[in-house]
Amino acid sequence: MSEAPSDAAVLDVTGWTCPAPLRDRPRVVMGHGGGGALSAELVQHVFAPAFGGEVLAQLGDSAAVTLGGARLAFSTDSYVVRPLFFPGGSIGDLAVNGTVNDLAMSGARAAYLSCGFILEEGVELSVVARVSADLGAAARAAGVEVATGDTKVVEAGHGDGIYVNTAGIGLIPDGVDLRPQRVVPGDVVIVSGEIGLHGVAIMSVREGLEFGVDVTSDCAPLGGLVQAMLAVTPDLHVLRDPTRGGLAAALNEIAAASGAGVVIHEGRVPVPEAVGNACAILGLDPFYVANEGKLVAFVPREHADAVLDAMRAHPLGRRATVIGEAVEAHPGLVVARTGLGGTRVVDLPIGEQLPRIC
């Protein structure tokens, strides 16, 4: 039997410009799935060169494609959250809302989902039924139909109960063009509500932590909120839902793709007291904690007040707040102005503070 090739022979990483641990460990680590710098390096150096294509190069929450004269948004995501059930939702809710929200970030009205279940041998059928019921209810609430699916079973010890993959398609209305390349200096940055709730809710039940008050995930479908914003003007520049890597990752991705600088005012970012306390205790930054029912928008300044009013009139945007602006200075970089009058760089996270949150 011939000797297996070494890691170096399979993949030469010595020339990569990449933060640790990828340079020192040419193997997958948990941070590669965290939505931060390691995830970006994996996509840039492995997946994008292998797959190619102009559509993939968009690297948005969903891909905008044209088929038969119709503009469609197309997205897929996999869900491996632990625990399967948490305050405010379950893996079934996440599987729908996460994909519906990715489509909404293209301005699309979600229409159909596919659903793939990866089940571990030995998982209770009652758990599978409960997750399925949650998924179906979430789809109906979001106004989408589960049109096709697949089921696989892996041996005991080779999974974590249930993993779910969903893909979705939706129609993009005429005149809507949401992409980071449209961001220009002067754009107003709006976040739709309080950040960090999902990540802290998952952590509290997974680690058995108590923060003196119950924290509930913000898991919710954002399609209705986006349509309310587009009803004000189709000329929104870009939307993102700050899931893995939190608000910081979403802002950094937009800044890098647009070439604009971004300034946020730290004191304006709505951080719930419970989230702030939990992060202070654990040494975390709420800007990097995941959300599942929030969006960040870059809006032309002349439309910002009207868009903000429309967001606040919607149940999922009542706490919408202007947190900053796009600027000509420090292109591609996100900085926060602190309450003491200084500034700090809000960098792209390397990995993820809280693994397995979606």
TrEMBL record:
Residues 185-330 form the PurM-like C-terminal domain. GO terms for biological process: protein maturation. InterPro entries: HypE, PurM-like_C_dom, PurM-like_C_sf, PurM-like_N, PurM-like_N_sf. SUPFAM superfamilies: PurM C-terminal domain-like, PurM N-terminal domain-like. The gene is hypE. Coiled coil: none annotated. Residues 60-172 form the PurM-like N-terminal domain. This is Hydrogenase expression/formation protein HypE. Belongs to the HypE family. It comes from the Bacteria.
